Amino acid sequence: MHTFFLFDGALLHDTALHELLLKDPEIRLLYEDESPQAARIGPMLLPARQEVARMISQLATNNSELVFGYSLLRSTVRLDQIQQHLQQLRFIHAISGKRYYFRFADGRAFANVWRTLSMDQRQAMLGPVQQWHHYDPAGRQCCGRTAPQQSTSPASALPLQLQPDQWHHVLNATRVGELFLATSKVKYGSPAQGTRAQRYAWTTQIHDRLQQLRIRDTPVRIAATLVVWQTAGFVLGEEVFEAALKKASGSGDISGVLALGGLSAARKGR
Description:
Elements: E1 2-8, H1 9-12, H2 16-23, E2 28-29, H3 36-41, E3 43-47, H4 50-62, E4 70-75, H5 79-87, E5 91-94, E6 99-101, H6 107-114, H7 119-126, E7 129-135, E8 141-145, E9 161-162, H8 164-184, H9 196-213, H10 218-230, H11 239-251, H12 255-258, H13 263-268
Parallel strand pairs: 5-9
Antiparallel strand pairs: 1-3, 1-4, 2-3, 4-7, 5-6, 7-8
């Protein structure tokens, strides 16, 4: 069994590891045929080596977002065949005929698409890869694996084409991820509670509720998510919280939402 590292050049950009990889004689730049810039920020494939693994570990310790920038692939075939297969995953197609870049080297994007796929599509996506280890948007270590018996040949469902309901799930998950990332950058009030996985679950819940309330204002959505984190999900379903959200959506003033960041602690202190 051979082991390979798959990197997302855009996520590793401006890191020491990125510069090291670009100089490695064994590196395969999967977008090299597009442009020099695309080659630098696109997916990169490399046989796994211990010194590279150590650098990844060191970088991820200082920047938790970098864990999404690499995956570990295991396969019985060699580098050239893995490269050829991955280059077939560059685009995801819609039934309308349009195609979109697929950042499969970003664990979050991989996980969001993987969850929507049929078994045949998953087999096609993996191709000669037996194990595709990655981190999902919640920061959990996950692994896409080949099924014991394939019902179709791996290439038969390529290029990947998503049905409208699959696109809906992918886009929804992408928006949850964007809301999570935007909220993570906000430093205001009480500290966020819970683990990354818990905060991601709370983000999914508040995102779905905001959709139901038809609240689309970005500042209101971020403020709502921050308060949910600060209260460990306590405010979800609270009438005073939803009233504050509706008021903020109408006025643009989010102060009433942010004021609820200490609601859980206040209730417990009574």
